[in-house]
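[scheduler] slot 2 assigned
[scheduler] job type: sequence-to-structure, two independent chains
[scheduler] chain ordering preserved from manifest
[runner] begin chain α
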Amino acid sequence: MSKFISLCFRNHNEQLFSGLLQSIENELVLSHSTATPPRLISSTGLTTILINPSEMCEVKDKSICVGIMTQKPETWHLPGGDIPDGNFALIRADQHTLELVTDATSSRIIWYYQNEDFLIASTSQRAIIMLLGTFEPNDKTYSWFLTSGYHGPDMGWDKRLKYVHSNQSRLILNRETWELTEETPSFTFEYIQKPVSEHYDFYKKSISQAFSNLTLNPDQWAIPLSGGYDSRTILLLLPERKKFKTITWGQKNSREIPLSDAFIAQKLAKKLNQPHKFYPLDPAELPFSELLDRFLIACEGRMDKIGGYLDGFEVWDQIQKENIQGIMRGALPMSISSVPQNMEEVFSHLETPEFKQIFPEEPDFIHDFSPKVFPDYLLKKPGESLAEYRDRLFILYWNPGRISAFNDVKLNHTETLLPFCLKEVIDIYRQLPDQSRSEKKLQKRLVQSLTPNVDFANIDSNINLRAYLKSLDVRNEMLDLLSDPTSKNILPANFLNYLIQNLSTNGLEYQDRRYSKKIVLKKKIKSFLPEHFYNWRKSPRPNTDYTKIALRACIILRMNQVLVNDTAFLTKIQLPERIS
C-alpha cells in the first residue's frame, strides 16, 4: 500500500522543504480511504518520503524498500549490495551513490527524472510532475493505450519520465559526477531437452520448495480465490495454508451460477475446510466521472481494467477495514498461450493489436497516431525461438506495463505479493523448454494431482463492464468528455468525431447473458473440449467494441486534465517557486 517519493540534489548541502513532499500525499491517496501518516527520511542532499507506509516497509539508514522482500540479504540496503527477492521497489543510498532497484518483473514501477541539478524518483508519475510544475504530454503512448489498454514500452504520460527496467535492474547515480547508468542483466533460457516426465519432476520439486520458503504471517495475508489454476496453486502449495484467509468477490447472484469464479471458489474452500469470505460487488451509485476519477487516482490511468472496481472500491475499503495487510495474487510472469508458430502469433499472445486490426475499415485517423515500435532491446534476437522471444517480452515489457498497473490500483488499500513473479520461481520457468512452459501444462498437471474433485471456473463473476458502459447515463458522460472542445487538443478531431458518431448510433443497452442457461451450457461443453479445437472454431472476423475504445479515450483525456492540474501543486501550497 506504500509509495515513495525521493529528491536527490546534486549540491549535497541543499535541503528540500520537507513539508513540500508531505503535502503531495493528499493528492495521491484516495480521499475516502484510510491512510497511515507519511514518514520522512532525510539526509544531506537527499530527502525521501513514504506515503501511506505499511508495517511491511523496510527502512535502514538512507535506504527504503516498499513492498515485500521474501528473501532479504544482509546487504539489501547498501548500494552495490545483493538484490533481494520479492515484489518491491527499492531505493538505497550513501553519500556517494544512489541506486534504484527493481524486482524480477518490475511489479512496482520506479519512475525517474534527472536534470543537471536534481533527480526525482518515485513509484508515482504524478508525484514527479507535481514537483516539476510542468507537464509534457507523451502522445506516443496514445497508440498503445487505445489498442491495448496499457502504456507502451518505456512510456509514461510525460515524455520526460523514464522507468527502471525489470529483471532486477539497477539504476545507479554517482552523486559526485552526476552520471546515471543502468545495469540490466540479460534474460535467457537455460534448459536441456529431457523427457517431459523429468521436467515435471523438476518443476514439482522446485516450485514446492519455492513456496515452502515463503514465511508470511497468516494474520496479515489473504488469498483472493478465483475458480482458476493460479490462485488454487498458491493455496495448495502454501505452507500452513489452513491459517490463511481466502476471499472472493463478485455479483451477488454469481455464487449460484455453476462454473462461475464465485461458485467454484466457495465450493473449493468448503472442500478444503478453508476459511473463506465472499464480498458482494455492486455498481456504485456514483456518476461515471467520479468513479473514473477514483480509478485514475488509484492506478494513475495506467490501464483500462475498471470493471473490477465499478463498486467505487467498496470491496477494497472493506478488506482494508478488516486489517488485511496483503493479498497474494496469481499472476504468471510468462505467457499461458500455446507455442507460437509465427511472429503474428507472438504479438497476438501479447495482446498488442494494430489499429487496422481493431478498425478493419482503416479510417483516415489511423495515420494521425504515432506508429507502435518496440525499442531495440525488445526485438527478437538471433537464435531465439518464438516462444523464448514471447516470454522474454512478457518479462521485460508485459509485466512492467500490466502486472504493475494491476498492483498499483490496489496499493491504496493493501500490499500485494505475486508468488509466481519471484525470481526464484522465474528461474524455474527459465529451465523449462518451450512446450513445457506454454499453456500452463506442468502447472495444470501439478494442481490436478493435488486438488479435490472441484471443477475449474470459466465464467467471470465481476460486474459486466460492457453493459455498464452502454447504460444511458454513462454513455452520455463519455460523450460529453469526448465532445469537449479541449479534447481536440489531445486526440485527433477526426478520431473523436468517429467515436462520437459510433457511440451515438450503436445501441444503448447491452444484455448481460453470461448467466443464462444457454451460455452456461456452452461453457460447460467448452470445458471438455481441447483448447486447439475451440481456438479453431473462433471467428476471425473483427468486432470493434466502440465502448471499450471510448473508455480508453476518456482515460487519456481525463488523465491529461489530472496531470495539467498537478502542475499547479506548488502554487497551491504557496511556495515561492517550483524546484525546476
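[runner] end chain α
[runner] begin chain β
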Amino acid sequence: MEKYNERQKIIVIFFCICALLLVYKSAELQIFESKYREQARRTTLDKQINYPSRGLIYDRNDELLVVNTPIYDIKATFKKVDTDMDTIAFCELLEIPIDTFSILLNKNWKSRRFHKSVPFTFLSKVKPEIYAKFQERMFEFPGFYPVIRNIRSYPHQNAAHTLGYLGEVDQRTINKSDGKYQTGDFIGVSGVEKSYDDMLRGSKGLNYLLKDNLGRDVGSYENGSLDSSAVSGDDINVALDLMLQEYSELLMSNKRGAIVALEPKTGEVLAMISAPTYDPNILKMDVNRGKAFNDLLSDTINKPMLDRSVISKYPPGSIFKPIFALIAMQMGVAEPNRTIYCDGSYEVGKRGFSQGCRNHPTPYSIDIALQWSCNSYFYQLMKECILLNGYDNPGAGLDTIVNYLSDFGLGKKTGLDYHYENEGFIPDSKYYDKLYKDVYNGWKWSYILSLGIGQGELELTTLQMANLAAIIANRGYYYKPHLLSAINGDKQAIPNEYLERHKVRINQEYFEPVINGMEKVISQGTATTAYVPGLDICGKTGTSQNQRKVSHSVFFGFAPKVNPKIAIAVYVENAGSGGAIAAPIGGLIIEKYLNKDIAPNRIWLQDAMIEKNLLDPYE
C-alpha cells in the first residue's frame, strides 16, 4: 500500500509541474510578451487562391489559336467587411452605383452556394485602370481584395465552333466536383475547351497571408510553408490547319452548311467549318459578352451558334451511292461490270416514275453508273439487296445493309473528341415495322427504294460523310476522327483509341471500280467544277432533295487517288445541284491544301464561290 501511495505522489507531482509550465508559457505569450499579443490583436489569417494559366491551343503547324488575357476581379468575404466603411468612396472608386453595393454584397446565405466566411466574387471584369486604383487603397476597405485571372482571346477569327468558349461554372457542377470548382471559376462550355477542360485548366495554388486590421499584408503564414504554387494547364495542338480553316470559312461566306476535312491515314481533322460562323472574340468573358451571346441566340434563321458539322443531320443524296455500291457487291447482288439499262425512269409495278436521270450513256459498269449518278442503276441494286431473302421478308435484306453501314460508322457517333456529336439516323426493319404498323401486310420493298440514292429517312452528319470519303480513300479502313494532335508538343501522347485502325467488311477488290468511278465523276462526270490538273481528285456529287426549299448541294471526295492526303465533305444548304456549289468549293479546298495556292486560271471560280450569297433560301 505504501508503494502504491508513493507512486501516486510522484504522478501527482509530475502533472502539477506540467500544469505550472503550461500556465507560465501562457502568461509569457499573453501577458509578458507584447509581440504575440499585438500580432494576435492586429492580424488575421487569409487564404488566397492563385489561379493557374490555362493551357494554350495551337494548330497542327504550331500557329497559336487561343491565348490568355488577364481579367481583374474584386473578391469579398462578408464576415470581414467593415460595416462602418466609406461606402460612397468605395463605389466611386469602382465606378458602380451606390444602389447596387448592397445587392452585390448580400447573397442568399441560406443557399449552399454562398457562405459568409467564404470569399466570393463581388465584382468581375473590372477595368485595368480601376483595378490599379483599388490596389492602392484597398487597405481602406477590409474584406475586399483584388484577384487576377485569365480569360481566352483569339489571334484569329476562325474555328469558333471547334475551339469552343468558356463560361462560369454552375452550382450543379460545383456540387459534383469534389472541391475542384468553386463559385466564379471558369470551365469549358463547348468545343475543344470542354473536351479537354481537365487538361487545359491546370491546378490552383494557395497562399496563406497574415493581414492587419486594415487589410494590409503583414507577411506569409509560417514563412509560406503551407503555400502551394499554381500549376499551369497543358498546352495542346489540335489537328486543324489554320490556313485551310480560314480559307474554307471564306468560301462558305453568306452560306449555310458545313465542311469537314480529314487526313485519311490518321483520322486527324484538318478543318471543321459550320456556316454561318462568328468571331470567337465576341464571346470572351468581358463586359460585352452577354449582349453578344443574346445576339447570336436571337438569330433563329441563320442559327450561328449551331455547329452544323457535327449536330445537323442531312440526307446525303447521291454521295451515298459509292458506299451502297460497295455493299451491293459484297452482298453478291452486283459485280464491277454489271450493266443496268436506264431510260430516265424506273418502273415499280405497273407505274414508272422519273427520278431525274438526265440523258447519259448506258451504265455498263458500276464506275459508269457512278460517273453519271444513275438513279435507276442504284434503285435496281437496292431492290435486289432488299429482296435477297424473298419478297415476303424485305426486313432481312434491309437489316443486312444496315449491318454493313454500321462498319462504316453510320447510325452511331464516330467517336470524335468533341463536346457533342449527333449519331445521324439509319432506318432498319424495326423502324419501318413501326412506321407502317397500320398498313395491311406491312411495308414493301418499293417503300424504301429511295435509300439506295441517299434519300428517304437516311440522315448523316457532315463529319460522317467526310469519314466515308476517308474509308474509300484508305480502301477499307479508318481511324476515329479526332482533333487532338499533341500534348505539350508530344504527338505520341494522344489516347490510344485514336491510333486503332477500324476495318469495314468489304473485299479489297471492290474499292477500285468505285474509286475509278469517282475519278471519272471529277474528270468527265457531274463534278468537273472540282477538277484540278495533276491532283487526281476522286469525288461524288449529290443533290439532296428538300421538300420545303431549294435542294441541298453535296460533295465528298479525296485526293490524290494514290496515297491520299485529304478527304473532304461539303454540304451547302439550299444551294441546288452538287456540281454547282459544293463540288467547286470542295475542289478549291483540296487544291489549296495540296498546292498551297489556287491556280491563276481558277481564281475566277474562287471569287465566284466567295461572292455567292445563299442566305436567301429562295435564291
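[runner] end chain β
[qc] chain β: Confidence is low (pLDDT under 50) at residues 35-43.
[scheduler] slot 2 released
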